[in-house]
Amino acid sequence: MTLEQFRQLAETWGGDIDRWPAATQDAAREMATGEQAERILGEQLRLDRLFSLAPKMDEGRTGRAGFAVLQRMADADRKLPWFRRGLRLSSLLPATSLVCSALVGLWLAGALPYRHHPPDALSVVSMVFDSSILSIGGLQ
Amino acid sequence: MAAVSARQHHAFRILMGRHMPRAIRVAQRIVRDSGEADDIGQEAFLRVWSHAASFDPDIARFTTWLYRIVLNLAFDRTKRRPHAPIDEAVDVRSDDPEPVERVIADEERRILEQAMAGLSERQRGAIALFHMEGLSGEDSAQAMNLSAKAFESLLGRARAALKENVQKIQDTGRCA
């Protein structure tokens, strides 16, 4: 590596050789022991420090931005048509449990034997007697 | 990120708390306007939420994916904008005495912000990713959707232009 190549790499990638492309690092480290190379790196490191300054941000700013995102998500949810809202898991849960209960009921109705007691003679007589009381022109 | 893909709000809030500052920082470096940078940060996370299922950790890290979203949004805004803002909003100074280090840092920040104004938005993006965010050349290239060689060239031009602008500001007090 020549000093000119070293300078070009330093001007592109900065004063920290560890951040240069891996293929150039070994040769650059050998070169960096020289006085001129050290000066080049020192100058680039000063620029690196300046270039790495971040814009000033007050503490609450990111929190406010995050809160605004959650609000926009909630607004977008409210604007969804009812059938799209209904398709979400949280909305489907009550409907699914109702359908499941109905299916279990139907299955039980089909699976269990139907037990019906035939009416005895007394109840038939009682039914006829009672209904004749209520009718106009009945026996009594 | 897997929990965010599974639509878990709690995981999304944690992810946002952790990464929102970097999204806003990078956006502000490019668009040079704090209000617009906040909008971009918000929009970026809405996209993260709505496109979480398409994120593949085998292809890229989450931060690289986020930076790419932020850069695309920021570049779109600067394209649509009829003119660049003259200067970033400056904090109101109080009369309280400030430590010397902070005064120097503020002055350096002001010089850098002025010098960055003379760069193209892609050059500002390269400086923000490589220097401010400390990404490697490879990760920066991936976030900018560039080849390693193209990123190297972009970064070299950006540094040269920025160095020249800083020099001019220090000599004359203003950028040409």
Strand and helix map with partners:
The complex is a heterodimer of chains A (140) and B (176).
Chain A: H1 3-13, H2 22-31, H3 35-51, H4 60-79, H5 82-86, H6 89-111, H7 121-134
Helix pairs in contact in A: 1-3
Chain B: H1 2-5, H2 9-31, H3 34-50, H4 62-80, H5 100-116, H6 121-132, H7 137-143, H8 148-172
Largest interface: A-B, 29 and 41 residues
Major beta sheet summary of chain A: none
Proportion of strand residues of chain B: under 5%
- Spans of chain B of at least 5 consecutive residues whose pLDDT stays below 50 are 88-93
Helix content of chain B: over 70%
Please compute the radius of gyration of chain A using only Cα atoms.
Answer: 44 Å
Rg of chain B, nearest Å: 18 Å
CATH architecture descriptor name of the largest domain in chain B: Orthogonal Bundle
Number of domains of chain B: 2
Number of strands of chain A: 0
Helices of chain B, by number, come to 8
Largest sheet of chain B: none
Relative strand content of chain A: under 5%
Q: Give the oligomeric state of the chains in this entry, treating copies of one chain as homo and distinct chains as hetero.
A: heterodimer
Brief digest:
The complex is a heterodimer of chains A (140) and B (176). Chain A is mostly helical and 140 residues long.
What does this protein look like?
The complex is a heterodimer of chains A (140) and B (176). Chain A is mostly helical and 140 residues long. In chain A, 71% of the residues lie in helices and 0% in strands. Chain A has a domain of 49 residues. Chain A is built from 7 helices and no strands. The longest helix of chain A has 23 residues. The termini of chain A are far apart. The model of chain A has no long low-confidence stretch (mean pLDDT 83). Chain B has 176 residues and is mostly helical. Chain B folds into 2 domains: 89 residues, Rna Polymerase Sigma Factor, Chain: A (Orthogonal Bundle), CATH 1.10.1740.10; 78 residues, Winged helix-like DNA-binding domain superfamily/Winged helix DNA-binding domain (Arc Repressor Mutant, subunit A, Orthogonal Bundle), CATH 1.10.10. In chain B, 70% of the residues lie in helices and 0% in strands. Chain B has 8 helices and no strands. The chains are: A mainly alpha (140), B mainly alpha (176). Chains A and B meet through helix 1, helix 3 and helix 4 of A and helix 2, helix 3, helix 5, helix 6 and helix 8 of B.
